[in-house]
Design a protein that fits this description.
Layout lengths: L4 E6 L1 H5 L8 H15 L4 E6 L7 H6 L4 H25 L4 E5 L8 E2 L2 H9 L3 E5 L9 H11 L4 E6 L4 E2 L11 E2 L1 E3 H7 L6 H9 L4 E5 L5 H6 L6 E4 L2
Parallel strand pairs: 1-2, 1-6, 2-5, 3-4, 3-5, 6-10, 9-11
Antiparallel strand pairs: 7-8, 10-11
Helix pairs in contact: 2-4, 6-8
């Protein structure tokens, strides 16, 4: 097995599946089963999930919302999604805990690094919600920060596409996929993998990222077992 502790970043939009908004029950349970498969191998799993299926702060700001309030709404959306993932995991016999970046007991326990690691070592899945707890930071940055803090071996970024391409494969049919790419190449080519803050944090702290298609059942466990799934981003 290649990884002992992972930070799994999930997309809020993917959680909506074909509904476009909200939470699709089938997709939720599909994710839960994939996570349990990996957990059953002995992998410690922390999860950060976005909130774009409910509310995205930046889009709200474009519609006239105050940016700080919009981002706070987005943080709360990630907590809703985190509770949903936790409930789904618990329903299939996998213990999980929700930690929040903003105090909101009893919904979730207030996050700190040592508590998160303690729960991981107790064999629980840890769901890290509320972003960084601050406006102007994306959940990608939140997942980079948490992955570094909990000393994860890798960040697995689950998306709707099967890796990083030379262009958006949903818009450009001639786009080709990278199997591996360095952080420096991402900067040089201007590729939109994550926001620059998140990418820089991973580069400076030597946290590799694998971008893969989480919506294809079986991909997560294949990746954990060492199959070449998605695109690896690493320091040269």
């Amino acid at each position: 097995m290649k990884y002992n502790r992972i930070l799994l970043k999930l997309s809020g939009e993917s959680l909506a599946a074909n509904k476009g908004m909200g939470i699709d029950d089938d997709r939720l349970m599909e994710y839960a089963k994939q996570i349990k498969e990996v957990h059953d191998l002995g992998v410690q799993i922390a999860i950060v999930i976005g909130g774009g299926n409910i509310f995205r702060g930046l889009k709200g700001a474009n519609r006239g919302f105050d940016r700080v309030k919009g981002d706070q709404m987005g943080m709360l959306a990630t907590v809703i999604n985190g509770l949903a993932i936790s409930s789904a995991l618990n329903s299939i016999g996998l213990k999980s805990s929700v930690l929040t970046a903003i105090r909101m007991e009893p919904i979730g326990e207030f996050y700190n690094k040592w508590k998160a690691i303690e729960l991981l070592e107790e064999n629980k899945v840890v769901i890290l919600s509320g972003g960084t707890g601050n406006p102007f930071f994306t959940t990608d940055t939140g997942s980079s920060l948490r992955g570094i803090e909990i000393e994860a071996d890798v960040m697995l970024k689950g998306t709707r596409v099967d890796g990083i391409y030379t262009a958006d494969p949903e818009k450009d049919s001639s786009a080709t996929k990278y199997d591996e790419i360095t952080y420096d190449e991402i900067y040089e080519k201007g590729l939109n993998v994550m926001d620059l803050t998140a990418t820089t944090m991973c580069k400076e702290n030597n946290l590799p990222i694998i971008v893969f298609n989480m919506d294809k059942p079986g991909n997560l466990i294949k990746l954990i077992k060492g199959e070449k799934i998605g695109t690896l981003v690493y320091n040269k």
